[in-house]
Amino acid sequence: MNNFIIHIGGPTASGKTSLAIELALLLGTEVVSSDSRQCYKEMSIGTAVPTKDEQSKVLHHFIHSHSIHSPLTAGSYASEAGHRVSSLLEKYGSAVIVGGSPLYGDALLYGLDDFPKVDESILEQLSKQSLEELSHQIKELDPISAEDIDHQNRRRLERALSICLQTGKPYSSFKNKKKSKPFENVFEIGLNWERNLLYDRINSRVDLMFELGLLTEAQSLTPFKDLKPLQTVGYSELFEYFEGKYSLDEATEKIKQHSRNFAKRQLTWYNKKPEFHWFKPSKLSAKSVLDQLGVNY
After folding, report:
1. Where does 4-112+179-293 sit in CATH, by number?
2. Rounded-to-integer distance, Cα 19 and Cα 54, Å
3. Is domain 120-174 given the CATH code 1.10.3900.10 in the classification?
């Protein structure tokens, strides 16, 4: 099969980057990140970007490619990344996409849902509410979206609520309608860890982030804490620590808890996709993945 895409999704800390590199090396192609935060050059440790050694093995796209001062949306990402993926398919006949941001991955691979324009007054109203208020409101107005959405992601909460308030209809009612599919021959895969092992990996990753200097990185970004890219797990908790709302131990535990909660929502998203293939991580190799998918290399 020529011109195929392998998209590695699934929960945080499941080993997506390592598998992506192994697959790209075997296929002789490059990696496109679909992570909504790794694209920002100001954020490294808290977003777990591939290491310099990992990036030296295979060319990665959309890693530190943009600035928090000119943030991407799912739509602008899909447009830019779509051109890059098309060029890789033309050049190599395959492309590997990897990332744990389901909205970005789906926007790239399947196109965006068509949402109505929202009045600025609604957006301004939502911007004045706390995360807790936004979270409570989405549960009331759209329980379906409330199950899937990241309640630590202010941008997504505001987006969903703005549609609810603008139209009087649930945000979820506008999603998953038939769209023109940008690419054919897409294989979506993920690593299926036992839940307790996955949570251990998440906790260990957070500990490693602190060892690598997450606290210093977050401190340097404090002047920009209100920018949307920084309203995310790993940074927002530390900004509250700097404000004296928590002790450092409490902030660390909150990062681990929120990361585990995010992993649950990622698993819920991908488990709802019938085309998603789960692989057990034990003794897994790029070759065995391709063999099971039935593609040539």
Report:
1. 3.40.50.300
2. 11
3. no
Each residue's pLDDT, cut to its tens digit, for the chain (297 residues) gives 679 999 999 999 999 999 999 999 999 999 999 999 999 999 999 999 999 999 999 999 999 999 999 999 999 999 999 999 999 999 999 999 999 999 999 999 998 777 888 999 998 999 999 999 999 999 999 999 998 888 988 988 998 999 999 999 999 888 766 566 789 899 999 999 999 999 999 999 999 999 999 999 999 999 999 999 999 999 999 999 999 999 999 999 999 999 999 999 999 999 999 989 999 998 899 999 999 999 888
Q: Where are the domains of the chain?
A: 4-112+179-293, 120-174
User: Do residues 193 and 201 lie in contact, with contact meaning Cβ atoms separated by under 8 Å?
Assistant: yes
Alpha helices in the chain (DSSP H): 16-27, 52-57, 74-92, 102-110, 120-127, 131-141, 143-148, 154-167, 195-212, 214-220, 236-242, 248-271, 286-293
- The whole-model pTM stands at 0.83
